[in-house]
Amino acid sequence: MTEQTQQLQTQLWNIANTLRGKMDADDFRDYILGFIFYKYLSTKMELYANEILEPDQLKFRDLEDHAQEEAYLEAVKDAALDKLGYFLLPSELFSELAKRGNSGGKHKFILGDLTKVLAHIEQSTMGSESEEDFGNLFEDLDLTSSKLGRSENDKNELIVKVLSHLEEIDFDIANTESDMLGDAYEYLIGQFASGAGKKAGEFYTPQQVSNVLAQIVTLGKDRLKSVYDPTCGSGSLLLRVAKQVKEVSAFYGQEMNPTTYNLCRMNMIMHDVHYKRFDIKNENTLEKPQHEEMRFEAVVANPPFSAKWSASPLFMSDDRFSAYGKLAPKSKADFTFVQHMVHQLADNGTMACVLPHGVLFRGAAEGHIRKYLIADRNYLDAVIGLPANIFYGTSIPTCILVMKKNRANQDNILFIDASQHFEKVKTQNILREEDIQQIVATYKTYTSGALAEAQVDKYSYVAPLSEVAENDYNLNIPRYVDTFEEEEPVDLAAVSNDLKAIDADMATTDATIADYCKQLGIDTPF
Q1: Domain containing 276 — which CATH number?
Q2: What is the 3-state composition of the chain as percent helix, strand, coil, each rounded to the nearest 5?
Q3: 408, 454: one domain
Q4: Neighbours of 442 (CB within 10 A)
Q5: Burial of 380 by CB count in 10 Å (0-12 exposed, 13-18 middle, 19+ buried)?
Q6: What's the total number of domains in the chain?
Q7: 162 and 48, same structural domain?
Q8: Terminus-to-terminus CA distance in the chain, angstroms?
Q9: Which of 230, 361, 449, 488 is the most core-located residue (most Cβ within 10 A)?
């Protein structure tokens, strides 16, 4: 990370804390990320418009009151809707609103104008190819909320203050070689997650875990046709996969929470992913899958742990579940997500998802599904145990399941116990870079066919399928990776001598106390 990126992250976090005193973490996250996004869209609009107008020696801001203003704006709008997916007027640019807010007098009140501008960004896309990608993006920025202040003037004053601070920061958007703002945006999302408690799991996967998943599904590839996350949250996991390869042709995801769905689309656009290259849907993945007929080269996910679902008998005729003969229980949808992801996985693809440890050994319907995936389909490639307390909002230990429909090692499954390899930072455990690389290197060695080298004492083990069958398809990692540390033998003779020495010391002490008591003329206490 560059010093410039770190500086930007600090500046943005400081501005975020301007709002923090006024409202809780969830609310101020939505406001500050929304305003940063508005500035990003505004800057991109101006840069692109200036590029189009350069042959005519005009600037976008100069079009107002120009003799051919209407014709120029129409031409710029058509081009912008295709290239950027949206359109802003010169008077609607972020810098114009910030300037008006600081101008004093009647023009200082900008809440009404700002509300109209944010609505117009969405409205500008109506009827265009990008309409779904920009629709309702700003619905969580309620500028009439009492959370911003008691009076309209209080609200306006706070918003003007935030916009003014943001206006002073150079996002370096013109630099196409840098993703500085995208990285800073990810940083802010992570910071909000760290303070969001249990709610954090709804929108964010810790970067070190995302890194492991991303490296596993991209192993041996420098380009991906597609990547899919059925519980995509803020999109951080999808974007982490993109950092591991030269190119991802298309991003697909589904997110049930509307606020998080908006955050994901913003995150995609902020990382300069063109609206034609991502397809994010707002719907319940298990109940109403939106990409069911598609198959993906890489599938990654951090589904909500042991979530509830309907488990309706009607799902027994659903192609995702029908072959298994049983549905996962209503109270634990973990394997329902696994079945869904396996269904969406391409024949040449890799799937890696984070799940609670219970999926490794729970019986009944889950045990039946687990056995089917291993014995009947032979899709399970690796089981990776992670440290406890690594996710925001829960301290339970978790694991990564890696699945492939065409495995190189058809007769074995790799087990890795990385549960003791971490660093404790305040109240959270984190995977260090060396811990991440050890996991990935071990899996890479295994996939290369070097099975003996993939086995590391007290860390990893390549289990034959016959051994897994003998264990009745119980995947509990200690059954396969022996981490028992033998204690040093106790020298009983030395212990005996120590006890004798203690007894002698006690006798001496007792004699001293008895002598003091005699001198004081009182009874001894023993």
Answers
A1: 3.40.50.150
A2: 50, 15, 35
A3: yes
A4: 21
A5: buried
A6: 3
A7: yes
A8: 70
A9: 230
Q: What region, left, alpha or beta, does residue 66 occupy, with left being phi > 0 and alpha being psi -120 to 50 degrees?
A: beta
The 10s digit of each residue's pLDDT in 254-281 is 999 998 999 999 999 999 999 999 999 9
Q: What CA dihedral angle connects 186, 35, 71 and 275, to 10 degrees? A: 30
Q: Render 148-167 in DSSP notation, one character per residue.
A: G-SSHHHHHHHHHHHHHHHH
More confident call, 392 vs 359: 359
Residues 287 and 290: their CA atoms lie apart, in Å, by 10
Task: For residue 484, tell me if it sits in a domain.
Answer: no
Rama region for 428: left / alpha / beta (φ>0; ψ in -120 to 50; rest) = beta
From 359, 427, 361, 345, select the one nearest 399 (Cα to Cα).
Answer: 359
Alpha carbons 320 and 286: distance in angstroms, whole number: 10
Question: Considering the entire predicted model, what is its pTM?
Answer: 0.87
**Quick one: 76 and 100 in the same domain?**
yes
Same domain, 36 and 21: yes
Three-state DSSP state, 383: strand
Residue 485 lies in a domain: no
- Residue 514's domain comprises 490-526
* 517's tokens: 């008591």
* Same-domain check for residues 362 and 505: no
Q: Is the predicted pLDDT of residue 224 greater than 60, yes or no?
A: yes
Percentage of the chain exceeding pLDDT 90? 66
